[in-house]
Design brief:
By secondary structure, the chain is α/β, with parallel strands linked by helices. It has 21 helices and 11 strands. α2 packs across α4, α3 runs antiparallel to α18 and α20 runs antiparallel to α21. It starts with 6 loop residues before the first helix and ends with a helix. It holds the Pfam family SBP_bac_1.
Amino acid sequence: MHSPLTRRGILAAGSGLAAATVLPALSGCSLVAAADSDPDTLVVHSQLGTTAPGSPTYLASLDRFRKENPGLKVKNLINGDDLAQVYETSRLARKEPDVVMVNLYDKTLAWTDVGATVDVKGYLDGWGLRERVRPEALSAWTDAKGRLRAFPYFATNWPIAYNRALLDRAGVDAIPTTGDELIAASRKLRAKGIAPVTVGGNDWTGQKLLAQIIQTFLTEDEARHAYSTGDFGSRGARGGIDYFVTLRDAGVFADKAQGLTSDLMTTQFNTQSAAIESAMSSALAKVPEEVARHTEVGGWPLADGAAHDKPTILRTYTLIGFWISPNGVKKIDAVEKFLRFMYHPDTVSRFIKESGRDMALRSDTVSTDFPLVAAAQRLGAGVSQVLLPDVYVPPVAAQPLITATSTSFTRGTSATKVRAALETAYRSA
């Protein structure tokens, strides 16, 4: 897509960051009105500011930035999963905010290509900030044309959390590392009235776990091909789908997983109604202390003949970045001050210490108050990393894949139908 930004073009770029949500109080129209053209006002659009992990630290950082820059006002606009849609509405009216804090996924994949945001590589280098960023993060945020879409900021580890106390209660002696062990553990847990693996089968958390399990028999290149093209017909992809169906129909996942959301998943694990969850860093940081004390993190169990030699996890450096809009270019001096402040080691350390966030930036700070986040960081060679498909899935297929995920988690859906649902998500979009 190389044409100028148009309503038809950018609204076709995808259907949302995750499952459809009701617009919050800040609608697209109010955002257009709120985008301040005052050269002394920096307008930042973010998902941080309410209950999102890291919000208190972010708001405190904004207050500190304002005090250090008394001549520069900062207006903070907040949206949730609909941020991309709201931003696009404002951009169509040329009233977009100056800086956008959002992840690289779905609609945002097309922003730099259609001129909704700008290539920031020159700014990163010109401001001397390249060495602050992990090389893996720079690679992940760089598109096929060598453009850096945004300044990387938040990252995440995405291991599997195991409630050791619940496993012990059910008579499970060790963390399962194979599919057979996981099935056996699930049966014992169910016998004690404990849900085995809780998962948001009706939203992005289920999509990610499904992708992780499918990759059991795929190399990274094979996984990249499958999620870029929607071709799940290879031997490895079919083997991964078969493995998923075997686990599902053996009762590994919580009852009615196809209707669960990420919030319900988190609640089930944190209240000890379920023993196992696929938990990114922000979810690990929310595990109550009394549960975290007897929780271990590891990888997803493997099947015989897997392409990996260790249980798998997901990891990404594209959770949140700072995107610069065309309006932001007009206030680039203010944007530079803001980004230098957010990249400062002290600011980065606060997010790690206070919010348990993993960062795409270099830092020696450890999440001492968030032991599960720190434990996930230490997994290292004990696990194998599989591909997070977000940057490879065409934006138009992102939301249909959520629907396909719910279908896949429905007990009794055959492997053939799971594959058909996944491939149809690409064709129907």
